[in-house]
Structure to design on (444 residues):
């Protein structure tokens, strides 16, 4: 049986290809290597389903997030991995950069830490150290520490 | 009496061998089952855990909806029921596919940060399968409109071309294998003696990088050629299997490979099927009835 409305279907397929082209363009803009198209905020939402960025950047560092709480005796470091074991393909949830680099999201984590009796404040630090290729041991030499944000407990 | 020749558009939509859809349906169901069972380990600690709220992603659903463990397990079980329908085929195939997809999406929505490329890919795969004739039995002996195949070719073409171009044009460290060698040392994606050893072999990493970029960029331009179609897809299988052996990247690889039978040039697929089936007549008869 001949295809019905083949011209229309071809047009729709071309539209799909254009959508992916636009998504690629937005992905490049998000990477900072292309001019932002006009109306980027809206386009980011619309093209989210068509953007495929995987293993693009050079990731030559390990990273971790450390949390400390301030009590009567000063600052104490907490083991976040033990306290929040939620873990999926990409490691602990709180280690995803779009989570821990967002102070609003980190404030939710801080609010939870503030429930620890006697806690006056909580702060978070990002720690980065170079990957060592070809060996299991990954010495934490040359650490770079960046304080992310601190929160006072009410 | 003259017979009018079909135009270019009509010729493009000439029906082709449909057997690839049956193979893709079964392969996708198995890939989805693998994915579903894998998620099963995490239902309690990742999907119904009070700490899910700390992992909310762009959708913010996890900040408002937190599944209790029975609800999370029910959704997970519903997904299995859907997959049973997809396996069974016939009129249960498409409803089963969508039941699995919606149950899976509902689980992931409450864990927003895990909506990543693999999950986005699943959306397109489900749409592509829905455009195909997966609810019809006995497809191996029939022909079908190529619309669903074209849809998936556009999706896969974009998927591979976009990732390949970004590596090739935006990150110089991909050209000499450096980026890949560091990815093999990722604390969460990789690990184990083999990726660790490989990360210290610059020549092998450079070769693997070149292979990846060549496949990803070349896919869109080469998969449409009948003679090359199978070879291009074989290269894709090699790439995805290598990634799955070396890294833990979730369900993307098996999901992507499961639809390859549809991407194969229809005539090349039919010929391959005719060549292979005499070797496994029992299995071939079974697939033909599915």
């Amino acid at each position: 049986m001949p295809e019905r409305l083949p011209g229309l279907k071809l047009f729709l397929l071309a539209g799909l290809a254009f959508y992916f082209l636009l998504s690629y363009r937005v992905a490049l803009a998000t990477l900072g290597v292309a001019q932002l198209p006009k109306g980027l905020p809206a386009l980011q939402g619309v093209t989210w389903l068509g953007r495929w960025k995987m293993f693009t950047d050079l990731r030559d560092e390990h990273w971790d997030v450390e949390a400390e709480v301030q009590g009567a005796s000063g600052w104490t470091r907490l083991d976040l991995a033990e306290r929040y074991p939620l873990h999926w393909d990409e490691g602990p949830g709180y280690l995803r950069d779009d989570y821990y680099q967002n102070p609003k999201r980190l404030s939710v984590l801080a609010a939870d830490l503030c429930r620890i009796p006697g806690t006056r404040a909580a702060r978070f630090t990002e720690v980065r150290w170079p990957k060592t290729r070809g060996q299991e041991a990954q010495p934490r030499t040359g650490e770079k520490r960046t304080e992310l944000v601190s929160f006072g407990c009410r | 009496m003259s017979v009018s020749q079909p135009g270019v558009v009509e010729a493009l939509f000439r029906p082709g061998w449909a057997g690839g859809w049956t193979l893709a349906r079964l392969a996708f169901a198995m890939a989805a089952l693998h994915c579903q069972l894998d998620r099963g380990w995490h239902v309690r600690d990742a999907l119904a855990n009070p700490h899910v709220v700390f992992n909310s992603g762009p959708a913010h659903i996890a900040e408002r909806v937190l599944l209790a463990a029975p609800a999370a397990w029910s959704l997970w079980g519903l997904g299995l029921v859907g997959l049973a329908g997809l396996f069974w085929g016939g009129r249960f195939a498409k409803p089963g596919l969508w039941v699995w997809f919606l149950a899976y999406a509902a689980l992931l929505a409450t864990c927003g940060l895990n909506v990543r490329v693999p999950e986005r890919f699943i959306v397109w795969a489900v749409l592509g399968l829905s455009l195909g004739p997966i609810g019809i039995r006995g497809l191996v002996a029939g022909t079908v409109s190529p619309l669903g195949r074209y849809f998936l070719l556009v999706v896969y073409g974009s998927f591979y071309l976009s990732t390949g171009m970004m590596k090739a044009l935006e990150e110089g460290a991909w050209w000499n294998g450096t980026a890949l060698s560091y990815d093999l040392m990722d604390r969460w994606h990789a690990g184990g003696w083999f990726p660790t050893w490989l990360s210290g072999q610059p020549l092998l990493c450079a070769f693997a990088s070149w292979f990846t970029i060549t496949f990803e960029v070349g896919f869109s331009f080469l998969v449409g050629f009948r003679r090359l179609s199978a070879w291009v897809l074989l290269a894709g299988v090699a790439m995805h299997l290598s990634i799955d052996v070396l890294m833990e990247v979730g369900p993307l690889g098996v999901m992507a490979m499961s639809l390859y039978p549809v991407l194969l040039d229809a005539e090349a697929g039919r010929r391959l099927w005719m060549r292979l089936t005499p070797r496994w007549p029992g299995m071939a008869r079974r697939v033909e009835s599915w």
